[in-house]
Design goal:
It holds the Pfam family Metallophos. GO terms for molecular function: hydrolase activity. Belongs to the cyclic nucleotide phosphodiesterase class-III family. Helix 7 crosses helix 8. A seven-stranded mixed sheet has the order 3-2-1-10-11-12-13, with no helix packed on it. 25% of the residues lie in helices and 20% in strands. The chain contains ten helices and 13 strands.
Length: 374
């Protein structure tokens, strides 16, 4: 029996109505384009024969009730089913305030987009194809959001009860925080850890029993990673360069799953007809503090004076990472710096280009892509 699922991934839209926009000169996010960019995406997707739209978190700028309510209403107007999970920007603390939603209010707001009474769910998309929506937003004893993503014991117990029922079927697992590393040394980097699920191994070990694909956001980069037979597609933010979204086609036949991935970009919005160039420059203009921190942190540990000299040569580094399929040549930099940053390029274990972050075909359950195209 052959099954086919065609779906879109729209991640980290950070919806911000004009009256809610934070005015900060150092912010990376171009939240000013959140609504016109999303409207353009929805116009495109509504013209296609899609089975669903998946949104892996950071739905709003910072958990504002007005922004959540606007988005939930907009999603209800679409002719396509939509499923969401929360990101770290969506539920700032467990209880709601006069301006922001808490956990229960989030579930109520998005009750037509996956949720019932609990902050995780199982949804049938097609016979033999399932979606699991997980909540990686956890809270401390005071009800404040934890720094790292985390799956609490109740959710892991639910997975233990649910996954055995799905053996032999295909399972899409949507969660905000990364479960696999998408950057070299991400799990040991103080800057990279905050984008990872803290107890990722607990989830990875459970998913070994099913034919699973991970769909994440949070990192604001285009990247496809694999580990121990698991694949994870992380999708960049709609309000950060290169303003991407994806259309994915999944075909399941004779127990084998094949995945075709295509990436699209928002090229322009009414007030920014040159959005791509403007946004890349916006990111580069704000990159020096970020790159200086990278250079002075492990494993390089440069002095502030050394980092200050080198950082300007790396101002476009994160934009290249965010776009996916990055290729680097840092021969003009000191050798330790050169070797460190060239590791971030899209290369395989033999150092050869592996351009699979934006356009590719994958075989689920395999540790290597059997076809890639750009």
């Amino acid at each position: 029996m052959r099954q086919h699922l065609r779906f879109a991934i729209v991640s980290d839209p950070h919806i911000a109505l004009p009256q809610t926009i934070w005015r900060s000169p150092s912010r990376f996010h171009l939240v000013e384009v959140s609504i016109p960019a999303l409207e353009q995406v929805f116009e495109h997707l509504s013209s296609l024969a899609l089975d669903c739209i998946l949104m892996p978190g950071d739905l709003t700028q910072h958990g504002e009730k007005d922004n959540h309510n606007w988005l939930a209403q907009r999603l209800s107007d679409l002719p396509i089913p939509v499923y969401v999970v929360p990101g770290n920007h969506d539920i700032i603390q467990r209880e709601d305030t006069d301006k922001t939603v808490g956990l229960n209010q989030f579930l109520q707001c998005y009750q037509n987009f996956g949720y019932d009474q609990q902050p995780y769910y199982l949804q049938s998309l097609k016979p033999g194809i399932w979606l699991i929506g997980l909540n990686s937003i956890a809270f401390d004893a005071e009800g404040q959001q934890r720094y790292n993503g985390y799956l609490e014991a109740e959710q892991l117990d639910w997975l233990d009860q649910t996954l055995p029922q799905l053996q032999g079927q295909t399972v899409l697992v949507m969660i905000h925080h990364n479960v696999l590393e998408h950057l070299p040394g991400q799990a040991t980097s103080s800057m990279g850890q905050r984008y990872l699920l803290q107890n990722a191994q607990a989830l990875r070990s459970r998913l070994q029993s099913v034919n699973a694909l991970l769909l994440t956001g949070h990192l604001h980069v285009q990247d496809i990673a694999t580990q121990a037979g698991l694949w994870e597609i992380t999708t960049g933010s709609l309000v950060s360069y290169p303003h991407p979204y994806r259309i994915v086609e999944l075909t399941v036949e004779n127990g084998r799953s094949q995945l075709s991935v295509q990436t699209y970009r928002i090229e322009a919005v009414p007030e920014l007809p040159n959005l791509q160039a403007y946004s890349r420059q916006w990111m580069s203009d704000r990159a020096l503090p970020f790159m200086t921190k990278l250079l002075t942190s492990a494993p390089l540990h440069l002095t502030p004076e050394e980092a200050e000299k080198i950082a300007p040569y790396l101002k476009d580094f994160w934009a290249a990472i965010a776009a996916g399929d990055a290729q680097f040549d840092f021969a003009h930099l000191p050798q330790p710096v050169q070797q460190h940053f060239e590791r971030f390029g899209a290369v395989d274990d033999q150092g050869q280009p592996q351009l699979i972050d934006n356009f590719t075909t994958l075989k689920l359950g395999s540790s290597a892509a059997f076809h890639a195209s750009s």
